[in-house]
Amino acid sequence: MSQSGLSGVTLGVLADQVGMSKSGLFAHFRSKEEVQIGLLQHMAEFATARVVAPAMKVEEGLPRLKALVANWFGWTRRAGLPGGCPVAAGLFEFDDIPGPVRNKILAMESEWRGLLTGLVRQAVDRGQLRRDLDVDQFVWELCGIYLGHHASYRFLHSADADRRAQAAFQALLERALLEPVSGKKNTKRKAVKRTH
Question: What is the CATH number of the domain that holds 186?
Fold first, then answer.
């Protein structure tokens, strides 16, 4: 699935991989779509054990968010998936193909973004990130960094994909840690008024 994409996984290919007959495998999966959904569910469990579970042991708030992102960027290479993340690829493979497989990918991506949103809000609530932070925008940009990393590493074979993704995440964090520019300007104006 990592190398061939979801569309490349057929009952025949899967039967060869697991050493079963097609008819035996068909008894478990009634359609190619059921195979794809089953593989996506297995991939979610596989990824959770390597990306999410270790981060959940870290202190809540910003430390946990940083740990999750560190585990997330480049996780497929460390997990031995040479073709990259099947869900990231599936976002494009099934973007305009309605049906249960697209619905499964949509649900997985929505759940993932919900997890990221919750972690960012925890960091805001703990005073580790700006109180006026647009959390949805932060998560949107963070997911964009991941997809940019995926394209750079998988398609462009960029040797600096990891470094650039980390630099982009650090820049995103720095903006989230700083006071708003408008607040700083207002403070300066008030200080000027007092001196006159």
Answer: 1.10.357.10
Q: Count up the domains in the chain and report the number.
A: 1
Find tokens 């997985």 and name the residue. 108
The residue segments making up the domain with residue 170 are 50-195
pLDDT digits (tens, 9 = 90+) for 162-188: 999 999 999 999 999 976 555 444 444
In a domain, 33, yes or no: no
The model's pTM is 0.82
Tens digit of each residue's pLDDT (9 = 90 or more) over 106-162: 999 999 999 999 999 999 999 999 999 999 999 999 999 999 998 898 889 999 999
- How far apart CA 121 and CA 128 sit, in angstroms, is 10
